[in-house]
Structures are given as C-alpha cells and as structure tokens.
Amino acid sequence: MKNLISELDSIDDVELKIDSELSRFTTIRLKNKGDILIVKSIEALKETIKILKKYKKAYHLVGWGANQILHNTADVYFIKLQFEFDRNYLASARDEYYLPANISLNILTSHAKRFGLKGWEVFTGIPASLGGAVYMNAGTNLGEIKDIVKSVTILRSNTEIEEVIIEKDSFKYRGNNFVKDGDIILALTLYHHGLDESLSIKIEDYLDLRKRTQPLQSYNCGCVFKNYDSNHRAGQYIDVLGMKGLRLGDLMVSNKHANFIENSGDAKSVDFVELTDEIKYQLELFSGIQFELEAKVY
Description:
Elements: H1 2-9, E1 14-21, E2 33-39, H2 42-54, E3 58-61, E4 68-69, E5 76-81, E6 96-100, H3 105-115, H4 130-135, E7 139-140, E8 143-144, E9 149-155, E10 161-165, E11 171-172, E12 175-176, E13 184-191, H5 199-213, H6 234-240, E14 247-248, E15 251-253, E16 261-263, H7 269-287, E17 296-297
Parallel strand pairs: 2-5, 3-5, 4-17
Antiparallel strand pairs: 1-2, 6-13, 7-8, 9-10, 9-13, 11-12, 14-15, 15-16
Helix pairs in contact: 3-5
C-alpha cells in the first residue's frame, strides 16, 4: 500500500487525497469517505491508470458527480479530471468544437446563447461535465446530446488513446455503446445545426421552466429513475403513490418534482440506497414495472 501511494504521489499533475470527504465531488453531497486523485493532464492520467492496474486497484471516474452516488468506496480510487481549457477558444462561433471532457455544460450553454448554436439547447440546465453528459447521453425535453456529437476521444483501459466516430447506433437511452469498463472519455468534437439568433430565448424559456418544475437550488443528483417509456414516467408514478415529501433522515423526495431526491443536510450514501430501494419496491408493487435507477450507484 505504501509503495502504491508513493508511486501515485510521484506523478506530476496528480493530487492524491487519502480518506477524503467525497461529498463535495457530487451534486447531491452525500457523506462518505474515500481516496480520490485530481488529475490535470492526459500524460498524468495514463501514468495513473498504469500504476493502479499494476497494483490491481479499481478506479472510477467522477465528472461533476451530477448523477453519481459514491457508495462502495473501499479499495476504489476515484479520479477527477482538471484538464486546462483556454476560454478564449469560445470567443467566436465555430463549425466544430474540440473540447475537454471536464468542461462544464453551463459554460457551453452560455456560448450557445451568445452565438445561437442550434442543437446545443438540448443540455440546457443540466449540471454536468461534457464527458459525463455524453457518457449518459444526457438530454432534456428539447432532445439528447447524441445529436450534436461527431467524435469522442477515449483513453482505453490499456492506456491507448482512440478516437471513436459517432454512428447512428453509438448511443442508447441514457447511455452509450462505445465506452467500456476502465475507459475514460478525454475530449469530444461537437457540432451544431446552424445559427439562430432566437435560440437564446428558447434557452431562457426552458431554464425558466426547469426552475419552476425542478428543485435546481437544492443538493440533488438530477432525475433518480429512468422513465420506462414516454407513457410510463417514473416521476408521475411516484407522485400518484403520494411519495412526494417522503423522508429518510436528511433525504426527501422532492415536493417540486417526484423524480428528484433532495439532501437537506448530512445524508449518507447508505440512506440514498435505502430510500431508493423502498421507492423501487413501491413502484413495482403498484405498477408491475421495475424502474431502473438513472443515478449510478458505485
């Protein structure tokens, strides 16, 4: 163990935090302790993966933690990317954009509003990194991010870098078909569908809708359950079952949107697992449908 820590500590552009409080690395802020590596360059990431594999240690990437529950933290190293990005790259509109995976969707939404990039409205209001959004094929009522992705640069688990060209079957609902276990998304090429000066109004209107219908100001992980289909939406079933306001300690099913769980204080990951297990049980008992978690529990 000492040799592993020593080797990780010796890598330039890597900051190792042992037994660190992990709540600040996820948007729902659940309490848990674990080991995390802050990695600031691709070469440092490659070296980190090689060392972790040498010692047969599991690792997991944490983006913005928007849909992640860091639960089973023993003997796992969490990795957070902090690649540098020159904001001057976004000073003007481009036909295509090559962007690091750790860039915030909020930054890209602001850029889309400024220049009217059609298609980029699909990730309006999603509190995530670009890489995390593409991994999950994130979307809103305005569409899914798959429709503006040209290619994805991936660090494979063998530390080889590969560019994946996106095809019609590259994505699925809230997921993808090209990232395998141990792979890490490094960067992406995005495009748009032309320029539209009125796009800023569309984005503002949708942001206003989200503010009115979702608890955007609280600590939460976004939608907790996947919809079974367009006619069987998890939030509607949870609402019908009267589970809005259901509490487990500092966790509560949101009164604003039933498919959100809010953390009002010092909730832990075990509380989230217990609460969602109960909701899943009640949903299946009522509807006969086994709703899957959209939030990823690791």
